[in-house]
Amino acid sequence: MGDLIIQLSGTAEGARLASILALSAAFLHAVFGALQKGRHDPWISRAAIDLSYGLMALPVALFLVPWPDPALWPVLLGAMIIHIAYKVAQALTYQRGAYTVVYPVVRGTAPLFAVLAAMLVFDERFNTVQWLGLGLLVGSIFGLAVNSLRKLQVGRDTLVPALAWAVATGAMVALYTTYDAWGIRQAADPFTFLAWFFVLDAIFMPLWMARSLIRLPRDQIGPLALRGGIGALVAFASFGSIMLATRLDEVGRAAVLRETSTVFAALVGWVILGEKVGARRAVLMTLIAAGAVIVEFAA
Hints:
This protein is mainly α and 299 residues long. Helix content is 82%, strand content 0%.
C-alpha cells in the first residue's frame, strides 16, 4: 500500500485521490470535533481518544509496518513536540474565548499560513485565481467568527487574548501540517510514519489529564471508553487522509480543502446536535465551499 502511494505521488490520479482524501479529512475532522462535545469535558474526551488511538496503533507500529530508519526518529520526535504545542495553544484559546468565535479564527488562519509555508518548504505556487479563492475561503471563515461575535454576551473581557491565541493556534496548525507533510516524505513507507506518529502523539494528553481521568465516576468510564474508541477510528481516518493527501499532491491545496471542515462542522451541528444554522451562516458556508472549489479547479 505504501508503495502504491509513492507511485501515485505527483500524478494526475494521485492529485484526484488527494482531493478526495482531503475532503474526507474535512468531514471527519468535523465529526471528530463533535465527538469531543457531550457529557464529558472536551479535554477528558480528547485524552480518552488519544489513549485509544495510541493503544490501537501500537501493535500496527510494532508488527505490521516496516521499522523506522534511525533518521526518522528525530523527525517523529519533532512532530510530537509540535503537536503538543498545538494542543496547549488550542486549550488556552478555548479557555479564553467562545468556541463559535475563536474556532473560525483558528481554521481561517491555518490555510493561509499553510499555503505560505508550503511556498517556502515545497516551492509550491498558487496562481492569481487560486489566491482569490483562498481569500474568499479565509474571509468567509472569518465572517463566521464576526457573525458569532455579534451575538456574544459573555467573555468579551478576554476576547483580545483569546483571538491572539486563536491566531497562534492557526499558525501551529499550519506548522504541523507542513512539518508532517515533510516528515511523511522522509519515511520509506508513509504508513510507518503514520503508525508511529499515533503512538507518540497519544502520550501527552492522557498524562496531562491523568488526575481527571482517575477521578471519573465508575458509571462514566464505559461511555467515555466507547467515545474514545470511536474517536480513535475517526482520528485514524481523518489525520491519515490529510497526511496521505499531502504526500500525493500539493500541501497547500490539501490544507485549503481540509478547512471546508467548518462547513461540515456546521452541518453536523445542525443535523446531529440540533444547532441552528441561520441564513447568514448558510451564505458564509456556501462561500467557504466556493473558495475551496476555486482553489481546487483553478490549478
